[in-house]
Amino acid sequence: MHIRWVIVSAVTLLMALASCIQADDGLIPIQLPGGVIIQAEVANTMKKRAEGLMYRESLAKDRGMLFTFDQAQPWTFWMKNTKIPLDIIWMNEKKQIIHIARNVPICTRNDEGCPQYQPNDPAMYVLELGGGEAERLKLEKGSKLQFRVP
Prior knowledge:
Layout: H1 2-20, E1 27-31, E2 37-43, H2 46-51, E3 63-73, E4 77-78, E5 86-91, E6 97-104, E7 116-117, E8 123-130, H3 133-136
Parallel strand pairs: 2-3
Antiparallel strand pairs: 1-2, 3-8, 4-7, 5-6, 5-8
C-alpha cells in the first residue's frame, strides 16, 4: 500500500512539473479568455526580441510570439523585414491587455523609416499574432491571458 502511494505521488509530481516546463519545441501555451490556447515562441533575449517574427512567410492561427521583459515600459515595436501583417498585444504585469495594435501592415522600406507602435502605458509582455486574430478571438483591452513565463 505504501509503495502504491509513493508511485501515485511521484507521478502526480512529475505531471505538475511537466505542465510548468516549456515544451521541447520551445512553445508555451497561452490561454485566452474564451479558452482558446495559442502556442507561442518566447522572445526573452535581446537577439530574439530584435528578430521577432521577421522574415516569416506565414503564421498559423494557433501560433504567436510572446515577448517578455524584466521591467514594465511602453515597449516600441516596428514591422521592418516582417512579411506578414500582425496584431501586437501589450499586457501589464498581471497579463491583462492594455493596448492592441490591430492588423499592423508590413513595411517594405529598406531604411529605418518603418512606423513604430507602442502603448501609452507600461507593459511587461507583448504577444504578436497574425493580423486579424485579435478580432477573431475577441481580444479586447482589459482581457486577461494566462501563461507561465519560462
